[in-house]
Write a structure and sequence with these properties.
This protein has 605 residues and is an alpha+beta fold. The protein has 18 helices and 19 strands.
Length: 605
Amino acid sequence: MTEFTSEQKNYLQGLAMGLDVARHVTGLPVISGSCSPTTSTTVRVGGAAPSMQPSGPDALQIAAQDRFLATGKKLAKEEEAKRERHPFEMWDVLTANAAQGKFPSGTDVFLYKYHGLFHVAPAQNAFMTRLRFPGGVIKSYQMRGLAELADRYAGGYSDVTTRANLQLREIAASDAVHIVTGLEELGILNKGSGGDNIRNVTASPTSGLDPQELIETYPLAREMHNYILHHRELYGLPRKFNIAFDGGGTVSSLDDTNDIGFHAVRVPSATATAEVPAGVYFQLTLGGITGHQDFARDTGVLVTPEECVPVAAAILRVYLDHGDRTDRKKARLKYLLDAWGFEKFLDEVASHLKRPWRRFDVALCSPRPTEDRLAHVGMHRQKHPEKHYIGVVLPVGRLTSDQMRGLASIAERYGSSELRLTVWQNLLLPDIHEADVDDVKQAIEELGLDWQATSLRAGLVACTGSAGCKFAAADTKAQAMILARYLEERLTLETPINIHLTGCHHSCAQHYIGDIGLIATKVAVGDEMVDGFHLFVGGGWGDRQAIGRELFPSVVCHRVPLLIEQLLRGFLEQRASAEESFADFARRHSIEQLRSLVTQELVAA
């Protein structure tokens, strides 16, 4: 009998292991002669080397990997790293490296992210730590404690992110463990805030405050957050994953940019059925990833609030089982949906839920409440008598430690000791009594911050950029501030406009959905490569959903402010009415027409 080749042996071994683990996790008996799921025995297939049979929650990840190996494919290096050692079994490595003042190397750089620690060299030879605040809600004592950690172990500041979250930066190798334990003592668990995990779960920042919301979403974000923390198998996903809840209030949570979006809708009595009685539900949308130019798409399914977390868990399980483990660029949920189609995917999810879907045409729901694009800044009345929330404007999301302490004190003295982070890189101070509003405004200004913003400043979003991210091609935060100052000195806009600056293809600032979006690039000027941007126009979200179109590629940084000024002046002179938005203006003009508004010398390198 002919001896199997090494490749054939590996193929058969992977196939056998995958079948056994799949049987184990579905409750079927293990094939005779193979490994027991509860004991560490060995198996030989065609003379192949012995292999350990995985058990427990990690068996799901191993089984998924084995299915790819069984077809002769090669796992991505990150999958190999997770397979060799689970990231949560690295505490001794973290403490040993910290004691020696060493940063991680090799695939340990990736595994550290599961503890929220990102080594961001060469931008900074330091760690950045990403946190977790479900629904963006943070208590004043946590904010004050973070200020102390920032002063002692980081750079003395924090950055608000586009996932209603915070980051601390400039953390030395020797202080990594101090940061992790310090966060835990504050009740901030950043477990899985990086790596192949579910990122900070977002919700409407005005949940429970908003007079027009259909339903509170913070309790659901908190429930989802706790479910994630206590299900280890969800840390074995093929790539990162985003979940958002939107309650139909005045401030959007950008749910349509997430892998799973739950958007509140009301079924009126006029269109209700026996299967779908009148009431508030969540429209289920899937596959949003605007960096890859796709929004979450409607599934035709409505779920009740009580069903949201179980439905999300079933979706995650299918993604865990079948998401790509070989090509990181194709490992997001969008690509599984593209390969399978929505019906096949929904059928597989339903098999885990063991009940049929509640199908309903969202067009038969009541019209959605109107979003207010300026409701995240300034003073706004809550649904509680004589109470207001105040949106604090943060310069491209950055807060000094003294400002963090000051805001915590304001929340304690005048509010409910709570702060709300938003996806717009600012924060809200809720539950301010009407009699205290003026005092709070003054206290905010004394911190060097503001509670009011121009239409330009309110919609300005910027990622970390090259000052703190190794992938970025320009200093986006600095450029955003230069741009805002330049435009505010020269233009007055009555209608809101969003300008998003992102540093690289990861699109953390979601440049494709801005009225004007910029993604950094390097531009050749003579023999040099200098910082620049590709410029896009006409993006939007929600009922204005659109992916921006590229208007000008490769514009050097110093020409961007004048170029955008000319573009906006053309808009102000030629818009159809004073109410027309820039996005609508951009969409009804061709790229050639929009380019004609700008002096062409500005776009020549």
